Amino acid sequence: MSTDGLFDIDPGPGEAHDEDSAPRPDAPLAARMRPRSLDEVVGQPELLKPGAPLRRLLDGGAAASVLLYGPPGTGKTTLARLMAGAGGGQRHFVALSALSAGVKELRAVIEEARRRRDRSGTTTVLFIDEVHRFSRTQQDALLGAVEDRLVLLVAATTENPSFSVVSPLLSRSLVLQLQSLGEDDVRALLRRAVASERGLADAVTLAPDGEDALVRLSAGDGRRALTALEAAADGALGAGETTVDLDAVERAVTEVAVRYDRAGDQHYDVISAFIKSIRGSDPDAALHYLARMIVAGEDPRFIARRLMVHASEDIGLADPTALPAATSAAQVVQLVGMPEARLALAQVTVHLATAPKSNSVITAIDAAMADVKAGRVGGVPAHLRDGHYAGAQKLGNAVGYRYPHDDPDGVLRQQYPPDDVVGIDYYTPSGRGHERTLAERVPKLRRVVRGTRD
C-alpha cells in the first residue's frame, strides 16, 4: 500500500460540480495528491480493514448510502470518489455543498440523475459536504432518491449525525465515523507529496525538524499538512532555498493559521482553549477565542452548546445563574441569529469566566453513575414506591411514607436511597460562591434526613 493519506477538498462555491477529471497541474497540492485508488490510501484502518463495511463498499461496489462523520481533512471527499469508481464505470460523481445549494439545486441534481440512469443505466454518487447545514426540508427532499437508489448518497458532516440529520435519512444510511490521521500517516503523506510527480517532484528537501513542525501543525488533518507544506515550499523556493526546515515552516505558519481559522479547521484547538480560558477565569483570553470562532464562521449554536455544558461542568451551583444565562444566550442565537447574537455569546462568556468555579456537580453525578455501573443499585424503598394504583398498598407500596411538608421545617427523617448506598455523600459543595451557603446547609439536611441530628 502506498503512503498517501486520506484527506478531502471541499467543493467550490456555487452549484453542483462533476469531478471526474484529474486536478489541473496548477491545482493546490492537496488536490493533486488526492488518492486515486484504494491502494493509495493510508488512514482509517478500522474502516478499511478486510471485511469492514466501508471496505466492502469500495471493493465490491455495493450500493449503500453513507454518512461520513469526522473532523476536516480525514477523507470524506476521497472516499466518496472512490465509491464512485467502485462501480466499474457505471457511476457518475457529483458534489454539492450544503453551504450554497438549496432545494432547487438539489432537485435539479436528482432529476439529472434520473435522466442519466434511464439513458445509460449509470448510477449517480451524490456527495454532499456539511450535510448538517441542510434544513429539514432539504434533507427530506433527498429521501425518495435515496430510498429508490436513484442516487448513492455520500454525505459528510463534522457534527454527530444523530443530532444533525433527520431520522428517516439516518435510518437509510450507513453511519461511519472517521478519525484524524495518525502522526505516521501524516509523515507518509508529506514524504509522498515531496517525492511524487503529482506533488513537488523533489523540488525541495523536507528536513526532519520541518517535518516534525508540519506534523504538529496538521493535528491529524491531511489537507492542513499539505497546505502548510506547499506554503513552506513556496516560501523556501522564493527565497532561493531548497530545504523546508523549521524556519521555513514557521515563516509560513501565520498565513496558514489565518487561512484555516477562516475555514474553521482550528475548530477543536480553539474551542478547547476557549473553555479552558473560561475555566481559568480569564475573560480576556476567552473573548479572544470567542472572536476567533466568530470571525472564522463557527456555528454559533455549537458555541452556545459548549457554554451550556461548561456552566454545569465547571461552575454549577457556585453560581446558580450561570446555566440560565448560558441557556438564554442559546435562545438568542436561535431566535435572533448572527451577527447580533455575538453580544449574548460575549455576555455569557464574561459571566462564566468571572463566576466562582466548582466542579462539584460533575463530580457528584460521575460518582453516582460509577456506583450504579458497579451494581450498587438495590431496590427502591417500599415507602417511596408508586402507590397510585389498585393493589399497591397490599404490596406495601407507599406505606409509611412521610410527607415533608407536614413538618414545620419542611424536612424530616426518612430513608430515600436504596439500602446499598445509604450514608454515601455524592455531592460535596466547594465552599465557593453560592456553594458557601450550601456547604453549611447540606450537612444539616443530611443530619435531619438520616436521623443523626445532634
TrEMBL record:
GO terms for biological process: DNA synthesis involved in DNA repair; DNA-templated DNA replication. Residues 1-31 are annotated as: Disordered. Keywords: ATP-binding, Nucleotide-binding. Pfam families: AAA (PF00004), AAA_assoc_2 (PF16193), MgsA_C (PF12002). InterPro entries: AAA+_ATPase, AAA_assoc_2, AAA_ATPase_RarA/MGS1/WRNIP1, ATPase_AAA_core, DNA_pol3_clamp-load_cplx_C, MgsA_C, P-loop_NTPase. Residues 62-180 form the AAA+ ATPase domain. GO terms for molecular function: ATP binding; ATP hydrolysis activity; DNA binding; enzyme activator activity; single-stranded DNA helicase activity. Belongs to the AAA ATPase family. RarA/MGS1/WRNIP1 subfamily. This is Putative ATPase. The lineage of its organism: Bacteria, Bacillati, Actinomycetota, Actinomycetes, Pseudonocardiales.
